[in-house]
Amino acid sequence: MLFKEIIGQKAIKDRLIHSVSEGRISHAQLFLGPEGSGSLAIAIAYAQFISCKNKQEADSCGTCSSCVKYSKLVHPDLHFAYPIALSKENRTSTNVIAEFREAFLDNPYLTLFNWFELLGAENKQAVIGVEESAEILRKLSLTTYEAEYKVMIIWQAEKMNQAAANKLLKILEEPPDKTLFLLVCESEEQLLRTIVSRTQLIKVPKISDTDLTQALVGNHGLSAEDAENTAHLADGNYAEALLLINENENAAQNLLSFQKLMRASLKFDAKAVLTWIDEISKAGRERQKNFIQYALHIIRESLIVNYGDASLTKLGKEEQEFVKKFAPFIHVNNIEKFSEELDKAYYHMERNANSKILFMDLAFKFNEYLNVPKPAMA
């Protein structure tokens, strides 16, 4: 992975290149960035730059033996750990390294949702378990083969359970010589504080709308107007932009599902609510989380339509038609309740809550919130 292949993030790239040039390579670094920001790609490009045998001023050479191996993620001194669906057959991520390489090389802005879809494990919980930590320690006990540094990249590090995280504390604080830990994380709050305190924090921001627009025009041939609209909707998330470009079928399903839920909840049609819950409960856990995020998006866009200029929203045609009718139900008296309840639902879904109970509770709450009176006009 070359730095030039990463969308935007110039300040982060410059900072990392400068640290290598000055020989200030911290042994444990935490790349903290939201989904679709490119934090995993940046960590790999950084590791490749460190190992490159013919470094250029602002990037790896891309042609030396080290870069060629890094480009295929097969360098013997590059190691990975990432969430899997634990089973009797698969206890560590090493068992699916071929799948991970294929997934990343196909899309360097890989998301956890994409990864678990590829594994066919949408209904399973994403975990980095204690046996993974033991595997990490084993790999790092090996001698270096070719490069100056052994590199361990832990993607979605917040998915480490407590036992796995505790097992790594000592090596993070006192790693073997020339060993580099790069933790890639989307939610710092879910990491043990003792892990965070042992790493140098690299904050990766969302991709700017300008950089994302340029990438969509250059890489996908979108018109400037379509690229701007897509970048606005994606909100700095390139993975989301790719879904939008492909007219993601999941978005259409989410809109239909959201419409059904709102209509059933408004007057609380018990039969319709139960039918809806049965439908969404058959979807994988990651799809259920995706729906909750989508619901938040529609709720917030509806508020803009209700109180602001509808031209500020960037919704699809079908979404616009629905939101025009739905927006009057979203106002200052209930927007915070909707947002808090959906945030809470997402939090509990990540922690393996029973989906039928969770969505039934949402339906009851939405019945209450949809019927909160709109404030009188001054």
Poorly predicted ranges: none
Per DSSP E runs of 2 or more residues, the count of β-strands stands at 5
Distance between the termini: 57 Å
Beta strand %? 5-15%
Structural class: alpha/beta
How are the strands ordered across the major sheet?
A: 2-3-4-1-5
Silhouette: globular
Describe this structure in words.
Helix 9 (209-220) packs across helix 10, helix 10 (224-234) packs across helix 11 and helix 13 crosses helix 17. It contains 17 helices and 5 strands. It has 2 domains: 3-203, P-loop containing nucleotide triphosphate hydrolases (Rossmann fold); 247-370. A 5-stranded parallel beta sheet has the order 2-3-4-1-5, with helices on both faces. Strand 3 (150-155), helix 7 and strand 4 (179-185) form a beta-alpha-beta unit. It has helices spanning 10-21, 39-51, 65-71, 97-106, 112-119, 130-140, 162-173, 193-196, 209-220, 224-234, 238-245, 249-266, 270-281, 285-307, 317-326, 335-350, 355-370, and strands at residues 28-32, 78-81, 150-155, 179-185, 200-203. By secondary structure, the chain is an alpha/beta fold.
Secondary structure elements and pairings:
Blueprint: H1 10-21, E1 28-32, H2 39-51, H3 65-71, E2 78-81, H4 97-106, H5 112-119, H6 130-140, E3 150-155, H7 162-173, E4 179-185, H8 193-196, E5 200-203, H9 209-220, H10 224-234, H11 238-245, H12 249-266, H13 270-281, H14 285-307, H15 317-326, H16 335-350, H17 355-370
Parallel strand pairs: 1-4, 1-5, 2-3, 3-4
What's the short story on this structure?
The protein has 378 residues and is α/β, with parallel strands linked by helices.
